[in-house]
Write a structure and sequence with these properties.
heterodimer; A: mainly alpha; two-stranded antiparallel ribbon; B: alpha/beta; Rossmann fold; Alpha-Beta Plaits; 2 domains; 6-stranded mixed β-sheet; 13 strands
Chain lengths: 266, 333
């Protein structure tokens, strides 16, 4: 308990540090915001063009597809917003020996790396995701219950964790190979499949994104539960289990990796 | 306080043929070679001592420091500091140590310096009242006042180093590791930093391990030297021991109007010096001769020189530590 309190406190401090940092370069910050708004606008335009050509997709209505797409952006955006700094491990932190700093401080290095940066760009995904959900929700006949709402709120952090765990595991490869940014990227790109109903894919792709790189659990399966109310044990329960299993595996890889870390000459 | 026993660190290195083709070949048929960076190093440091840790570039100093600070896991051997094993009990251990790598910084680059101390206070859980006192103390010793509100990226190297040392001392560590803390600094800043280290060592009985290439740092700060080369212990003892053991080098300096004095004197041929035992430098009318006084006693050198050429002025100097180290570095171990 004391540990969690300290972690939350440290998180708050790192976030405030990050915000101060952004304010230090106001021009960059403002241009960044403008760029991100423009980017989201074009994204939306693109989606609208695509979906207006496809009235329905293997039994899924246009609104349902957009809802799933919107839902997929929430866990992705949360992970992107909070834990984006893991990318830097695979790209340069390990290779340049800058990881030293994390090891000489009395906090868990993984936690330190994860919360050190805040990726404001991710707000775009989150806003977009929420907007798409809000627009489609009234048109979908969804049955609501208290249990359902609780389950939905519960599943979002776990779905986020799937992204985070995959990033931790692939970033940790850098401890051996010195560089693993592209491996992370390769895994990360698979998530594009998860934005659409899994039922549209052939069995191979379906199996891969369900059991091997389980991005389907970050979007389609939970969203499927929201839409249909079917199979909570699989759609929600397995999301939780898979995310926890992935987290355990990735932390194990990470910890082994730290022992193999070689720093860099100085 | 610090016990290092038979410490060893191996790295794996992939050997590649040159060029793109070589890199591609190594991708499919990697040929690995074991590199021994640290080979059986042992030493102890008692509490409150400043130990000078020296050796040529690539000797393995930084690798040892990184094992002692918990950054690298030793391949074999043991180090115990404050009764703790850095690699096994890292989180608790690092609370008791401060680390400065002169070539890197742990300061928050984009923010005013003060913000770094604010975060480190939280990381090390320093209580408010202690933090205030500590900052006042560090400010007094390292004179941070004039730049504490400036963003770190705008600091000069000297300011940054002082700031980094202060950052490593914020939590009052028992052991301080300084890896080249005076690198690239001007004479005045070097003096400031040496004084600060000395003051903190005296005031708080902090144990200090210091690596440097500036031997003045060592002479001013530490009585004890551990020297390593190619990953192995070469020397462990006090500076005076080093001088008496290797300090047979004397420096003879004289002014002469004899042309080509070094040719006329021909020390090497006359006394049978080997390469390492003598070196001669001529500058205008001044000649500087460094020689091993064990091979030829000073008196003999003097009388020979005085008898051979016309001398206007002559002096004999003790070897300085720099010369001893230079010879030790050059010598194959």
């Amino acid at each position: 308990m004391k540990n969690i309190k300290r972690m939350l406190r440290m998180h708050r401090i790192f976030v405030s540090q990050e915000i101060k940092r952004m304010m230090e370069y106001k021009g960059d910050f403002i241009v960044g915001i403008i760029g991100f708004l423009l980017g989201q606008f074009f994204n939306l335009l693109f989606l609208w063009i695509i979906f207006s050509q496809i009235p329905s997709l293997v039994g899924w209505t246009l609104e349902q597809v957009i809802f799933i797409y919107g839902f997929s952006l929430i866990p992705k955006g949360l992970d992107h917003l909070l834990f984006d700094n893991l990318w830097s491990i695979g790209h340069f932190t390990v290779r340049k020996g800058d990881f030293d700093k994390y090891l000489t401080r009395p906090i868990n290095p993984l936690f330190h790396v994860m919360v050190e940066k805040l990726q404001i760009d991710a707000l775009g995904e989150l806003i977009m995701g929420i907007a798409l959900i809000c627009v489609t929700l009234p048109t979908l006949a969804i049955e609501w219950s208290v249990v359902k709402i609780i389950l939905i709120l519960l599943v979002i952090p776990f779905a986020t964790l799937i992204y985070t765990a995959i990033k931790i595991a692939t970033a940790a490869i850098a401890f051996w190979t010195k560089r693993s940014g592209n491996i992370t990227y390769m895994f990360y790109m698979v998530n594009d499949f998860a934005k659409y109903p899994v039922t549209i894919y052939n069995n191979f792709v379906k199996a891969v994104i369900t059991y091997i790189i389980p991005f389907a659990f970050t979007a389609f399966y939970p969203a499927n539960y929201i839409l249909t109310g079917e199979n909570p044990l699989f759609n929600i329960g397995l999301t939780v289990v898979i995310s926890l299993v992935l987290l355990v595996i990735s932390v194990l890889i990470w910890n082994r990796g730290i022992k193999a870390y070689e720093s860099a000459g100085s | 306080m610090i016990y290092v026993e038979n410490l060893r660190k191996e790295f794996k290195k992939t050997i590649k043929d040159p060029g793109v083709i070589g890199s591609l070949k190594a991708l499919f048929h990697p040929h690995n070679e074991k590199v021994i960076a640290v080979d059986d190093i042992s030493f102890n440091v008692p509490e409150g001592e400043v130990m000078g840790f020296i050796g040529p570039n690539g000797a393995g100093k930084s690798t040892v420091i990184k094992m002692l600070t918990g950054i690298l896991t030793p391949t074999s051997g043991k180090c115990t500091i404050n009764g703790k094993n850095p690699a096994e009990d890292r989180k608790n251990y690092v609370r008791e140590i401060g680390v400065v790598f002169g070539q890197r910084t742990q300061l928050w680059w984009d923010l005013p310096l003060r913000e770094t101390y604010g975060v480190l206070k939280e990381i090390y859980e320093v209580p408010d009242d202690k933090y205030k006192k500590r900052m006042a103390f560090l400010n007094e010793v390292l004179d941070l006042e004039s730049f504490i509100t400036s963003p770190v990226r705008t600091l000069s190297l000297g300011q940054r180093m002082r700031a980094d040392i202060a950052a490593s001392l914020l939590h009052s560590p028992k052991v301080l590791f300084l890896d080249e803390p005076t690198i690239g600094l001007d004479v005045v800043v070097k003096d400031n930093i040496r004084n600060a280290i000395e003051y903190i060592n005296k005031q708080e009985n902090t144990t200090v391990i210091l690596t440097t290439h500036d031997l003045a740092d060592i002479e001013l700060l530490s009585k004890r030297i551990v020297m390593i080369d190619k990953g192995k212990n070469v020397f462990d003892g006090t500076i005076s021991e080093l001088k008496s053991k290797y300090g047979q080098i004397r420096e003879l300096h004289f002014e002469t109007d004899t042309q080509n004095a070094d040719k006329v004197l021909a020390y090497k041929e006359h006394f049978g010096f080997v390469d390492d035992d003598i070196s001669i430098k001529t500058e205008g009318t001044g000649v500087q001769v460094r020689f091993n006084s064990e091979v030829v006693p000073v008196s003999e050198m003097l009388s020979y020189t005085l008898g051979k050429i016309n001398i206007n002025d002559i002096s004999v100097k003790d070897a300085d530590i720099e010369e001893i180290i230079r010879r030790l570095y050059k010598r194959e171990v």
